[in-house]
Amino acid sequence: MINSSVSNCPVPAEQQPLNEYEELKISWLFRDCTLSWREYITKMVWIWGLSWVVAAPVAAASFTPNKYIAQFVLCGAGGASVGVVLGLIRLYLGWSYIRDRLFSPVIFYEESGWYDGQTWAKPQEVLMRDRLIVSYEIKPIIRRLQITSLCLAGLLVAGTIIWHLL
């Protein structure tokens, strides 16, 4: 049964917040946030490992690995973390955008181009459905990203302390 308030929605299908959420949830990078903690951390470690491809030569140019192994490892690890930080920022911005679109009682949309934007006030049942999705699906993802960012910041601080002790 199709809800009449949703079927009368003037927002194009690809701009409806629920459809944007469903697309984001299955897209390549964003779906990793919905995995179990173990799988999610594994994906983050893969991003960090792949970032070593760029970070290792830069660290080796600064600190010869056979002479300054600890500095090379810390510099490379810190440099490789940039890839993870950029990934986390992209994930956070994408999920926050969808959260805001779902949570908002009024949706801005474009009918045929950038020059003819309109707004649509969500009916109460659509607003309640969207806010439930935010509460039970998106907030845990955003919290996971925040926890990951805090852990990464902690590791960078620990690396800085170790660097100064060398």
Main sheet record: 2 strands, antiparallel
- Low-pLDDT sequence parts: none
- The total tally of domains equals 1
User: What gap, in angstroms, lies between the N and C termini?
Assistant: 67 Å
- Topology order in helix (H) and strand (E) letters: HHHHEEH
Strand segment count: 2
Strand-residue proportion: 5-15%
Mean pLDDT: 91
Protein name: CGLD27 family protein
Transmembrane segments: 45-63, 69-93, 145-165
Pfam family, one: CGLD27-like
InterPro entries: CGLD27-like
Layout: helices, strands, pairs:
Elements: H1 4-7, H2 17-26, H3 37-62, H4 69-103, E1 106-110, E2 117-121, H5 124-165
Keywords: Membrane, Transmembrane, Transmembrane helix
Transmembrane segments: 45-63, 69-93, 145-165
Protein name: CGLD27 family protein
Quick summary:
It comes from Hassallia byssoidea VB512170. With 166 residues, this protein is mainly alpha-helical.
Keywords:
166 residues; mainly alpha; two-stranded antiparallel sheet; 2 strands; membrane; transmembrane helix
What do you see in this structure?
The chain has 166 residues and is mostly helical. The protein has one domain (12-165). 70% of the residues lie in helices and 6% in strands. The chain is built from five helices and two strands. It has helices spanning 4-7, 17-26, 37-62, 69-103, 124-165, and strands at 106-110, 117-121. It has a two-stranded antiparallel sheet. Strand 1 and strand 2 form a beta hairpin. Helix 2 runs antiparallel to helix 4 and helix 4 (69-103) runs antiparallel to helix 5 (124-165). The protein is elongated, with a radius of gyration of 21 Å. It starts with a helix and ends with a helix. The mean pLDDT is 91. InterPro entries: CGLD27-like. It comes from Hassallia byssoidea VB512170. The chain crosses the membrane at residues 45-63, 69-93, 145-165. This is CGLD27 family protein.
